[in-house]
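Try this one yourself first.
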């Protein structure tokens, strides 16, 4: 069985020292090892942004896609080879701005893909512009007088789009994050894990200390029931979206793969890779 070190490759991440994305990479590697995967059983698909580099840093199949298109690629990979565990990863700008249409429809489609968003509430790679996750009043070069748009709540959107797995974590909480990624991988359906990942270079508001002061961990509510959709939505709204932990999981709804007749057991992945035109006609 592979150890988490076997999910490392020899490429040195070039994130800024202190960037939250380092911990997210470590958590993915640990979770992959903990659920018993081998590197050749995992595909990491990423978008554009600082976070998008992650697919090049993990010893697994990888695809560094284009801006906002992480999920179409990830779903395509899963459809082509359902034996793979597919992790999609990108930033808040990638997934919740240009890619939001794909995010909503991937959520309601419910393919067995784990989507990890590295949410630093800013555009980091392009040197610090306001993102859909930035707070109202947030000042950057793109909003020098402060953002006048409301902040997007990905958790509320995911819940209303019919998500079957919604979780949130903080890059500093490696134990919780690793456990949530493991649960997301095991979940039969689409799992959204939004991760607060501080951008130490450009976001001087949402710092490690700011997150520590503002996060509300579900560990404070031992009676919390993550299968209760109404409760989950209420809790997200009550905490202004700062809730961390497993917020919602629906284990009764079938995944996309399970609803397509014959898809799971009779498809291409279990057949020889060389398919003749005659064989193709019989598929
Ligand atoms: Fe991380 Fe921000 Fe540096 Fe990008 S610019 S690597 S998000 S700290
Ligand atoms: Mg960002």
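Now uncover the answer:
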């Amino acid at each position: 069985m592979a150890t988490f070190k076997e999910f490392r490759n020899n490429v040195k991440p070039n994130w800024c020292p202190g960037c939250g994305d380092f911990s997210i990479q470590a958590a993915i590697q640990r979770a992959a090892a903990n659920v018993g995967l081998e590197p050749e059983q995992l595909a990491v698909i990423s978008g554009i942004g600082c976070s998008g580099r992650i697919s090049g840093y993990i010893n697994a199949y990888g695809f560094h896609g284009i801006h906002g298109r992480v999920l179409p690629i990830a779903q395509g990979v899963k459809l082509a080879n359902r034996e793979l565990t597919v992790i999609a990863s990108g930033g808040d700008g990638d997934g919740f701005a240009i890619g939001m249409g794909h995010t909503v429809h991937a959520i309601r489609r419910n393919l067995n893909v784990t989507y990890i968003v590295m949410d630093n509430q800013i555009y980091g790679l392009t040197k610090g512009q306001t993102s859909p996750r930035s707070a109202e009043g947030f000042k950057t070069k793109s909003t020098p007088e402060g953002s006048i748009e409301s902040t997007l709540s990905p958790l509320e959107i995911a819940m209303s789009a019919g998500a079957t797995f919604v979780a949130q974590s903080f890059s500093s909480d490696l134990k919780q994050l690793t456990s949530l990624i493991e649960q997301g991988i095991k979940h039969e359906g689409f799992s959204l894990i939004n991760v607060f990942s501080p951008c130490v270079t450009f976001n001087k508001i949402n710092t490690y200390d700011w997150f520590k002061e503002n996060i509300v961990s579900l560990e404070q509510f031992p009676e919390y029931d993550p299968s209760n959709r109404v409760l989950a939505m209420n809790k997200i709204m009550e905490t202004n979206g700062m809730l961390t932990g497993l917020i919602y999981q629906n284990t009764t709804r079938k995944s996309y793969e399970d609803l397509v007749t014959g898809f799971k057991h009779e498809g291409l992945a279990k057949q020889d890779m060389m398919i003749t035109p005659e064989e193709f006609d019989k598929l």
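Discussion: DSSP finds eleven helices and eight strands in the chain. Residues 49, 91-93, 120, 122-124, 131 surround magnesium ion (ligand 2) (CB under 6 Å).
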